[in-house]
Design goal:
single chain, about 325 residues, alpha/beta, Rossmann fold, 7-stranded parallel beta sheet, two-stranded parallel sheet, 13 helices, about 40% helix, about 15% strand
């Protein structure tokens, strides 16, 4: 029986972690709401056990976590339903603890920090969210770490910078990649020249596998930063260079996001998070490197190459 379960596994980060476990020959359980989606993503891997759950039913959560030692929490919600994050975490914690799960790792975000008080940001930066989404993510983390403090389960958080990579459609760079492969105009959220960083998604899985093996990782939060400080403009230039295509760009700022949000719920919800584009927040992951040792970060040039190659293959008729 697998000892590790990925709750909310069907996304890009879940597939990266699954790939890392697979490379180690380690069996794992993937848990999601949609059986067809799980089978499509993981059904060809004999090391993967696909399990569906209903997070509204305590018995379903407990059954999905049965026999598991370490739960990696990747459960997503619609961008306009962030109030569900703490609710789902509370229910999952209760079910996992009832099932005897020993450890849980939350794959988190920088949202709870709010505005950076200085860069780079280390793990001791105050959590002072300036957005509803940040408050909901902080509440989610607080539930988790309180369970750890109470001795009910061992818990940790791994916060990621913005990410990109093959098959990642929830990235600031996605539309530029699509335009490079298919033509048309790339709709982007600006300003494009502010310092930013991106994690290459395939790099995440190996880090997670090493992190959950370290007992001293639990009870704390950790950072995984990108492959250096860059900007959207620099990576778009790299996309143009490698695709040999001059992109048509349509850049949307905060004011236009607000207007377009009258008709599009996703864009409407992006308005309050625009500060992460206009006011840089760069992570310091030196503590993680001291804990688990050096780890690989794919260069932006190589990451763009792999992302374009995958997008091109998918676009083939």
């Amino acid at each position: 029986m697998p000892q590790i379960a990925l709750f909310g596994a069907a996304g890009a980060i879940g597939q990266s972690i699954a790939s890392a476990l697979r490379s180690r020959g380690q069996s794992y359980r993937v848990v999601g709401r949609n059986e067809a989606g799980l089978i499509q993503a993981f059904g060809g891997d004999p090391l993967a056990e696909c399990v569906t759950w209903d997070p509204e039913r305590p018995d379903s959560i407990e059954a999905a976590a049965a026999g598991i030692d370490t739960l990696i929490y990747l459960v997503g919600v619609n961008y306009w339903q962030f109030e569900l994050h703490p609710q789902l975490m509370r229910k999952t914690l209760e079910g996992a603890i009832a099932a005897g799960v020993r450890k849980i790792l939350l794959i988190g975000t920088v949202y709870p920090y709010g505005l950076a008080q200085g860069n780079p940001v280390s793990e001791d930066h105050p959590r002072q969210p300036n957005s509803f989404k940040g408050r909901m993510r902080k509440a989610q983390e607080d539930l988790l770490m309180q369970a750890h403090a109470d001795g009910r389960i061992q818990a940790a958080v791994l916060r990621l910078a913005d990410f990109y990579g093959p098959g990642v459609d929830k990235s600031l760079l996605h539309n530029a990649v699509q335009a490079a492969v298919q033509g048309g105009t790339a709709d982007l959220v600006g300003p494009l020249d502010r310092p930013h960083e991106f994690v290459f998604v395939p790099d995440v899985g190996p880090v997670v596998c090493r992190l959950i093996e370290r007992p001293e990782a639990f009870g704390k939060s950790w950072h995984l930063a990108g492959a250096g400080v860059t900007s959207q403009r620099e990576l778009i230039a790299q996309i143009q260079h490698q695709s040999n295509r001059q992109l048509k760009l349509r850049v949307v700022g905060k004011t236009l996001l607000r207007v377009l949000g009258l008709f599009n719920p996703l864009l409407r919800e992006m308005v309050e998070m625009h500060y992460l584009i206009s006011s840089p927040l760069i992570l310091d992951d030196s503590a993680l490197q001291r804990l688990i040792g050096p780890f690989h970060k794919t260069s932006y040039a190589e990451g763009v190459r792999q992302t374009l190659a995958e997008a091109g293959n998918r676009h083939q008729p």
